[in-house]
Amino acid sequence: MVQYSPRLGDAFAAVADPTRRGILERLGRKDASITDLAAAFGMTLTGIKKHVRILEGAGLATTEKVGRVRHCRLGPGQLTDATAWIARYQHMLEARLDRLGEFLERTKGRQS
Amino acid sequence: MVQYSPRLGDAFAAVADPTRRGILERLGRKDASITDLAAAFGMTLTGIKKHVRILEGAGLATTEKVGRVRHCRLGPGQLTDATAWIARYQHMLEARLDRLGEFLERTKGRQS
Lengths: 112, 112
Known about the structure:
Number of helices of chain A: 5
Radius of gyration of chain A: 21 Å
Largest interface: A-B, 28 and 28 residues
Largest sheet of chain A: 3 strands, antiparallel
Oligomer: homodimer
Shape of chain A: elongated
Strand content of chain A: 5-15%
């Protein structure tokens, strides 16, 4: 049994939303305030804060309040567990396709 | 702007749940009926059906009713878009770390 961080589910849930993926892509280019993000995505401050809080919970963003402005940047979460899980899933899928291919080959052999 | 399948969000949402990841891992080893899955995960038939429906919606599982039994197997969805998105995110993160490293090197150079 492979052990994954309990944050694996949080990370997948965080990037399931297109706005949150957009926020990560934007923060990847440049740090931004909550106000910047709200303007960029045409959302209310409350709406953006909710998304940013979910990204923070998954370790994908961090925020810091300086004066009246809350600055957001990319967090330390690198989705490595998420990549590892997906890679394992794809490997499993390929193994199944290989077995199916072998079965079809054997069946063909019998018919000819 | 990279174009991803509209199913990208569905795929991430589908694998955000530990039971659904468990179902995919189990189907990776062997096809199973809804009843098998309910027994394996200690859930009601209704609970398992709900999870399987979400996996079906994301193309990660398919089901077929034969007589009174609904058989489940892995679907064609291979999470390739999900992997591609994560890879791009990690690349961006590394680029930021590189820039931070260069900045620190320059700062150190000035101080010595």
